[in-house]
Design a protein that fits this description.
9% helix, mainly beta, Jelly Rolls, 4-stranded antiparallel beta sheet, globular, 10 strands
Length: 114
């Protein structure tokens, strides 16, 4: 498990209002678009931040909107780590791939704050 240095999540008075779990295997995955921006075309609701935890395997991720992460390229999250992303665009650009060996997929668990 990664280091947890007295982290406090500032949600700017945002409420946690959606949740998902995403399997991460050998193929690159993204967070679900209609969870990040939901509602109608006239009144969209955008997630402003997200709390993401990793289980069952290590992953690499990228946020820059360029190349996808690979098993050797991208930011590294160990199984048990948590990541807070601030900003709708960062959530939309998040891409991950499993980089650890072992059976089965890793799992991302995400809670979205609106």
């Amino acid at each position: 498990m990664g280091w947890f240095g007295g982290f406090t999540m500032g949600t700017s008075s945002r409420l946690p209002d959606d949740f998902e779990q995403v399997a991460v295997g050998e193929e690159v995955v993204a967070l679900t678009a209609n969870k990040i921006v939901r509602g109608s075309d006239f009144v969209p609701r955008e997630a402003k931040s997200g709390l993401i935890s990793v289980e069952n395997g290590d992953v690499r991720f990228r946020l820059d909107g360029g190349d996808d992460p690979t098993t050797e390229d991208g930011h590294y999250l160990s199984s048990g780590d948590c990541l807070v992303l601030n900003g709708t665009q960062a959530l939309q650009r998040f891409r991950a791939v499993k980089c650890s060996t072992g059976e089965g997929d890793a799992r991302l668990t995400a809670t979205y704050f609106y």
